[in-house]
């Protein structure tokens, strides 16, 4: 059996696959955070709860309405995005222009309320969502076995990440979003409804988290606390990439997933801390993050 540093090659490839999958989720979630902070300057601590809502919504749509995975893949993020729009309109808009700590505390409180309410109804033991029939099985690549659903998660997550980056950085709509948050009065003078633009931007960032939740539902146990487990890691990824950097969130998310996966292979005790160690080193060398810009 082929070995690398005493680790069987099959095990190495398996952990690398897990790392890429986790990296795809980190990229999607980090991207949503980067969109919200980069364009709206809101530190969204409810982001993990929105990820959880996407997964919970997928399970509940199937259990109570019989809605399949493919419909839920589009419907669940839209429903959670609407929840985000309501949160922005009724809560976050009231503290617009205040210090970042207010949005952090407010969204943290919202996350705790959502988590508490759903825990009261569904408990913490977890709900299961069956793998879609389309993705049963996998393919033998010779050096490893690749499940179809894992391959689907990697491909669609990266496509959504690239599409979001392209829309924000390369299109007229993206220029409106950036301009609307940088000089709201000027954009309103051109007839742009800036408050609506802000609500839709926040809703879109939330939709990215919910989309990641839908993708996660067939892989992980769906519980009301699943968002809190991943939120701190995702914030660390965003800090490493640079707060508000769209491209940095995507690249760093994937890279940190791979680093975490490889660490589990060669030194498992450090796997839960390696991302935070990278964050500390990056901040010491470059306080704005790898792709961040000076204010």
TrEMBL record:
<dbReference type="GO" id="GO:0005886">
    <property type="term" value="C:plasma membrane"/>
</dbReference>
<comment type="similarity">
    <text>Belongs to the binding-protein-dependent transport system permease family. LivHM subfamily.</text>
</comment>
<keyword id="KW-1003">Cell membrane</keyword>
<keyword id="KW-0472">Membrane</keyword>
<feature type="transmembrane region" description="Helical">
    <location>
        <begin position="266"/>
        <end position="285"/>
    </location>
</feature>
<feature type="transmembrane region" description="Helical">
    <location>
        <begin position="149"/>
        <end position="168"/>
    </location>
</feature>
<feature type="transmembrane region" description="Helical">
    <location>
        <begin position="12"/>
        <end position="37"/>
    </location>
</feature>
<dbReference type="InterPro" id="IPR052157">
    <property type="entry name" value="BCAA_transport_permease"/>
</dbReference>
<keyword id="KW-1133">Transmembrane helix</keyword>
<keyword id="KW-0813">Transport</keyword>
<dbReference type="GO" id="GO:0022857">
    <property type="term" value="F:transmembrane transporter activity"/>
</dbReference>
<feature type="transmembrane region" description="Helical">
    <location>
        <begin position="49"/>
        <end position="67"/>
    </location>
</feature>
<feature type="transmembrane region" description="Helical">
    <location>
        <begin position="73"/>
        <end position="92"/>
    </location>
</feature>
<feature type="transmembrane region" description="Helical">
    <location>
        <begin position="104"/>
        <end position="129"/>
    </location>
</feature>
<dbReference type="GO" id="GO:0006865">
    <property type="term" value="P:amino acid transport"/>
</dbReference>
<feature type="transmembrane region" description="Helical">
    <location>
        <begin position="226"/>
        <end position="259"/>
    </location>
</feature>
<dbReference type="Pfam" id="PF02653">
    <property type="entry name" value="BPD_transp_2"/>
</dbReference>
<keyword id="KW-0029">Amino-acid transport</keyword>
<protein>
    <submittedName>
        <fullName>Amino acid/amide ABC transporter membrane protein 1 (HAAT family)</fullName>
    </submittedName>
</protein>
<feature type="transmembrane region" description="Helical">
    <location>
        <begin position="196"/>
        <end position="220"/>
    </location>
</feature>
<keyword id="KW-0812">Transmembrane</keyword>
<dbReference type="InterPro" id="IPR001851">
    <property type="entry name" value="ABC_transp_permease"/>
</dbReference>
């Amino acid at each position: 059996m082929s070995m690398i540093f005493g680790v069987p090659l099959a095990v190495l490839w398996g952990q690398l696959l897990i790392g890429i999958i986790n990296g795809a989720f980190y990229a999607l979630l980090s991207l949503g955070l980067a969109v919200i902070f980069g364009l709206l300057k809101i530190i969204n601590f409810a982001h993990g709860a929105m990820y959880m809502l996407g997964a919970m919504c997928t399970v509940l749509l199937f259990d109570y309405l019989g809605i399949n995975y493919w419909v839920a893949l589009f419907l669940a993020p839209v429903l959670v995005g609407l929840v985000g729009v309501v949160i922005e309109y009724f809560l976050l808009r009231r503290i617009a222009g205040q210090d970042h700590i207010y949005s952090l505390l407010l969204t943290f409180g919202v996350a705790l309320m959502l988590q508490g309410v759903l825990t009261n109804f569904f408990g913490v033991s977890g709900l299961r969502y069956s793998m879609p029939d389309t993705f049963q099985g996998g393919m033998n690549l010779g050096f490893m076995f690749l499940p179809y659903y894992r391959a689907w998660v990697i491909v669609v997550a990266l496509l959504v990440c690239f599409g979001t980056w392209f829309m924000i950085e390369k299109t007229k709509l993206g220029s409106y979003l950036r301009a609307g948050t940088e000089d709201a009065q000027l954009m309103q003078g051109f007839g742009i409804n800036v408050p609506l633009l802000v609500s839709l931007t926040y809703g879109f960032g939330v939709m990215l988290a919910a989309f990641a939740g839908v993708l996660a539902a067939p892989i992980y146990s769906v519980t009301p606390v699943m968002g809190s487990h991943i939120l701190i890691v995702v914030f660390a990824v965003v800090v490493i990439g640079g707060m508000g950097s769209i491209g940095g969130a995507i690249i760093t998310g994937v890279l940190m997933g791979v680093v975490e996966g490889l660490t589990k292979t060669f030194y498992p005790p450090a796997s839960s801390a390696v991302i935070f160690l990278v964050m500390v080193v990056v901040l010491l060398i470059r306080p704005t993050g790898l792709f961040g810009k000076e204010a």
